Amino acid sequence: AYASASLKNGGRLEVEALHAAGVRTAGVNDLVRTIAKWSEETNTTKDHTDCTKDSSPPMIFPEGMDVPYHPPQPWELAVYKPNKKTGLASWESSHTRFLNGDHPQTIAMTPANGRAIQVATVIGHVLEGLVQGRSTPLGRLADLSSPPNREEWEELQNLETNGGEGMDVVKNALSMKDFLTPIMGEEFMDTPFNERDEVEKQTYAKWCNCLKWYMALRRVGYEPKFGNENGDIVIKHEDV
Fold first, then answer.
1. Strands 233-236 and 225-227
2. Phi-psi region of 52 (alpha: psi -120 to 50; beta: other; left: phi over 0)
3. I need a surface site. Which of 4, 28, 85, 184 has the fewest CB within 10 A?
């Protein structure tokens, strides 16, 4: 239930993920359909939580869905903090399981500590693994969590470029709030969460997802490519 509640609007639980998490009831297909119907009925606002504007070329990964990208080195400011009991960082189990083929929904329902987490948290763990220098199949991750398209990437890039040295995401450990204030406005940022407009909250969630991708890719020196619906490359990112 927690995993389904944490899905972005329009997202749905996958039967295969439930099976992998240990669900063995004969009615699992009916369960998935029921949850999907509930999600459609309760999510009445337009989905703003994922990147991608239809009019702009999406980020593509010509190397293939399951081919891992190998960062040349970890981000220079990355800090590895292992848990004293497990000897692993909080993100590490999620990243390893994703690398081994587990669906993020399965990981969210059956994390290492036994307490369910949000699917978005799993995505964040995978991107943190990338920043820490771990090989990561970006194409498969992008199929589950949309990265910025060309327009969104350029908007974030312009914020970084025009913000001066203090906004350089490679040289600084910036908070999302500080980086996204020019997009969302100070009034929104200063408004308590439960008092924010629902559409604005979803817009902010969308930009947070875009920024997670943007920061991770910039910090490991990955040069994104953008293409059309046929997979043809139409533009390459130029370094800031």
1. antiparallel
2. left
3. 85
pLDDT at 48: 44
Cα–Cα dist 15/99, whole Å: 20
102: its two tokens: 């587990």
Local structure of residue 228 (DSSP, 8 states): -
Pairing of strands 59-60, 225-227: antiparallel
Tokens matching residue 154: 């350029």
60 φ, ψ to 5°?
-125, 160
Which contiguous run of DSSP H or E holds residue 225? Answer: strand 225-227
Which amino acid appears at position 101 of this protein? G
Contact (CB, 8 A) for 128 and 91: yes
For 32, phi then psi, to 5°, come to: -65, -40
Q: How far, in Å, CA of 239 to CA of 230, rounded?
A: 25
- Residue range 84-109, pLDDT digits in tens: 999 999 999 999 999 999 999 999 99
Cα distance between residue 223 and residue 153, in whole Å:
11
Range scoring the smallest mean pLDDT among 16-20, 123-127, 207-211: 16-20
Contacts of 134 (CB under 8 A, 6+ apart): 71, 95, 99
Tokens 């987490």 sit on residue: 117
Which two structure tokens, joined as six digits, stand for 29? Answer: 């297909």
User: How distant, in Å, are the alpha carbons of 15, 24, 37, 168 from that of 20?
Assistant: 9, 9, 22, 40
Cβ atoms of residues 69 and 136 within 8 Å: yes
Q: State both tokens at 170.
A: 């490679």
d(CA 226, CA 52): 12
